[in-house]
Amino acid sequence: MKDPVRIAITGAAGQISYSLAFRIASGDMLGKDQPVILQLLEITPAMEALNGVVMELNDCAFPLVQDIVATDDANVAFKDADFALLVGARPRGPGMERKDLLEANAAIFSVQGKALNDNASRDVKVLVVGNPANTNALIASCNAPDLDPKQFTAMTRLDHNRALTQLAQKTGKHVTDVESMIIWGNHSATQYPDIAHCKVAGKPAAELVERDWYENTFIPDVQQRGAAIIKARGASSAASAASSAIDHMRDWALGTNGQIVSMAIPSDGSYGVEPGIIYSYPVTCEGGKYEIVQGLALDDFSKQKMKATEDELREERAAVEHLLG
Ligand SMILES: NC(=O)C1=CN([C@@H]2O[C@H](COP(=O)(O)OP(=O)(O)OC[C@H]3O[C@@H](n4cnc5c(N)ncnc54)[C@H](O)[C@@H]3O)[C@@H](O)[C@H]2O)C=CC1
Ligand SMILES: O=C([O-])CC(=O)C(=O)O
């Protein structure tokens, strides 16, 4: 039997966590042989609702769950955490862009960055889901000077997975036939879903679909999928966001076997992107580490799209300069 790992989830009484916590508890993230201790954080007014979630987790009698901690104190929630999924933040409503949440949510991530710095395992892997996810991850990282910035990531895996399905459906193939999808940049309407390096059942994707569909349907549909879900459901994506968070953490921890996935990570200047901002790149993962895929050829269309989303991230960073520690 492996030693249990500690997994902190914030916003644990919210809608994403209502799927996320149960799937992690059942072994979907780290495997059916990995015991877990769940450390659940909520704000004080939501503690009663969180208690209900804990009751339900207990009622599932999950074999892998060794303990459940429910708290409104970030220092307790992050104590010795090996993984931290920062979900707790206000979601957007109809007509809002994710960066409209910057002011409402940014303060949460400076406090939680400090609490991670002071309490988490020195090897903690942090995934920020709460929007605007990239800049929130930057705020958390800047407030955690004793942790390596590379330990702070943000989620663009949902965009990546959305893009896989759109392309698979268009080409009449299955998602597992699609390789080397890339989401560049911000988890926002400026993100650049890039199929230039993508293959579908071994054939270059760009040769299988019309350029007009790619530029005028695929890209905007992936960029706007979150808004489409809000319009349809009256609430933002929850189960799909939880599923992608699990994909992100599982791949980071257990590896991708050479497959390319998209993760928003601190830029090291690769592809000319401003160092330090949390930018989504194509990566492969092995041995608990991710590495940016280097040497991809970029045409002018790609360069221009990558620059637009980088510019937005620089603007978001400037807007929260006072929270960057
Ligand atoms: N990166 C991505 O791909 C996606 C990100 N999101 C974002 O995830 C976030 C959460 O979404 P939902 O679960 O639908 O929202 P929700 O409103 O259902 O749940 C959020 C929970 O966070 C809690 N919370 C607020 N401040 C907190 C704090 N300081 N510490 C701990 N908990 C706190 C709230 O009490 C609430 O229970 C939103 O910002 C949403 O926009 C949603 C979908 C995809
Ligand atoms: O769109 C939103 O606000 C929620 C989200 O990030 C997504 O579904 O991609």
UniProtKB/TrEMBL annotation:
InterPro entries: L-lactate/malate_DH (IPR001557), Lactate/malate_DH_C (IPR022383), Lactate/malate_DH_N (IPR001236), Lactate_DH/Glyco_Ohase_4_C (IPR015955), Malate_DH_AS (IPR001252), Malate_DH_type2 (IPR010945), NAD(P)-bd_dom_sf (IPR036291). Keywords: NAD, Oxidoreductase, Tricarboxylic acid cycle. It holds the Pfam family Ldh_1_C. PROSITE patterns: MDH. The keyword NAD applies. NAD(+) binds at G11, A12, A13, G14, Q15, I16, S17, N105, Q112, V129, G130, N131. It catalyses: (S)-malate + NAD(+) = oxaloacetate + NADH + H(+). The active site is at H187. CDD domains: MDH_chloroplast-like. One of its GO terms (molecular function) is L-malate dehydrogenase (NAD+) activity. Residues 156-321 form the Lactate/malate dehydrogenase C-terminal domain. It is an enzyme of class 1 (oxidoreductase). SUPFAM superfamilies: LDH C-terminal domain-like, NAD(P)-binding Rossmann-fold domains. Its EC number is 1.1.1.37. Gene3D superfamilies: Lactate dehydrogenase/glycoside hydrolase, family 4, C-terminal (3.90.110.10), NAD(P)-binding Rossmann-like Domain (3.40.50.720). Residues 5-144 form the Lactate/malate dehydrogenase N-terminal domain. Substrate binds at R92, R98, N131, R162. NCBIfam families: MalateDH-SF1 (TIGR01759), PRK05442.1 (NF003916). Catalyzes the reversible oxidation of malate to oxaloacetate. Belongs to the LDH/MDH superfamily. MDH type 2 family. This is Malate dehydrogenase.
